[in-house]
Amino acid sequence: MAATSSRAKKQPSSVWLTERPPVKRKADQPAGLDLDKIVAATVRLLDAEGLAKFSMRRLAAELGVTAMSVYWYVDTKDDLLELAMDAVAGELDLPDESDERADWRDQLRHLATEYRKLLLAHTWLPRLLGEYLNLGPRSVAFSNATLRVMARSGLSKKSTSGALAAVYQFVYGFCSIQGQHRARCRAEGTTLDEYFHQVVEAVQGRPRFAETMELSVNATYAREDMSAERMLDDDFAFALELQIAGIETMRERERSAAAAAEVSGSGRQDSPNAPNAPGAPSAPSAPSAPSAPS
Q1: H-state helical runs in the chain
Q2: Cα separations (Å) of 238 from 131, 233, 235?
Q3: What is the spatial distance between Cα 229 and Cα 136, in angstroms, rounded to a whole number?
Q4: Within a 13 Å sphere around the CA of 219, how many CA atoms are in the beta-carbon half?
Q5: Are 173 and 120 in contact (CB under 8 A)?
Q6: Residues 34, 38, 41, CA angle at the centre, nearest 5°?
Q7: pLDDT by residue (tens digit) across 227-252?
Q8: pTM for the full model?
Q9: What torsion, rounded to 10 degrees, do the Cα atoms 69, 73, 79, 84 define?
Q10: What angle do CA 118, 120, 123 make, to 5 degrees?
């Protein structure tokens, strides 16, 4: 029997799944105000003041209009935040997919680096990505580009989702933490370098941090006197290479498993001791390809 509860019938909510009639400006509506200007002002405020301080009243004041004038163009604050998310996704530079000579690894590096730049430029974005469906046209264009690049890697379709999760959830987590560190430094009127050195001084000489300090002292960034930002850039680049190397490794495992299965199948078919023959030994089954890391 089909479920009839309101919970079962409820559909995911998104401004991109809602048909809204075209806006017809009333005589008392401010001249020159439109949805694009409202969204652009929303992004500016979010960048400057953060998500916690954002409100429709604050936005209206920024635009020099009443809050009701803003609601003439959007139904809710949530709708506006979704629009802002997709607006900044337009900053992502997508690879040229018409270049048949392009290496999928280079294109994946480019996409991951672009995603990182976006998350660090708009530190309010990571939190919203966990709250909204993110179905805007610019966001979907980025998602489709990653799928097409990954399709050229040779990894199986069943493993593609896990491979992309390994890459982009890594970028998301890395940048969310870095963005929070930057925000904390701004709030305290310090720099990331100063904050880093303060932490080192605070733990130096304490026994339980000895191994960590030894690693830090011997690391390349310590020997070359790198800035904290440069250190993070290098760590990100190396970690991204680990993700790509992992994808290549899993692809080769899948290919080896497929080749073993083909040989095994051919052996059963061509053997004089066919499986239906009395006493014929069963052919060994091919090893299963491991799942891509998620």
Answers
A1: 6-9, 35-49, 56-63, 67-71, 77-89, 104-121, 125-129, 137-151, 157-188, 192-203, 210-218, 220-223, 228-270
A2: 30, 9, 5
A3: 31
A4: 18
A5: no
A6: 140
A7: 888 889 999 999 999 999 999 999 99
A8: 0.80
A9: -90
A10: 100
Name the one residue in this structure whose structure tokens are 């790198």: 226
| Angle formed by the axes of helices 77-89 and 137-151, nearest 10° | 40
Query: How does 176-193 read in b/e, with b if 16+ C-beta sit within 10 Å?
Result: bebbeebeebeeeeeebe
pLDDT in tens, 144-193: 999 999 999 999 999 999 999 999 999 999 999 999 988 889 888 999 88
Query: Given CA atoms 207, 212, 218, 221 in this order, what sign does their dihedral have?
Result: negative
Decide if 192 contacts 229 (C-beta within 8 A).
yes
Among candidate residues 171, 162, 158, 160, the one with its CA nearest the CA of residue 104: 160
Q: Taking Cα atoms as reference points, which of 118, 111, 42 lies closest to residue 82?
A: 42
Residue 140 CA to residue 133 CA, distance in Å, equals 11
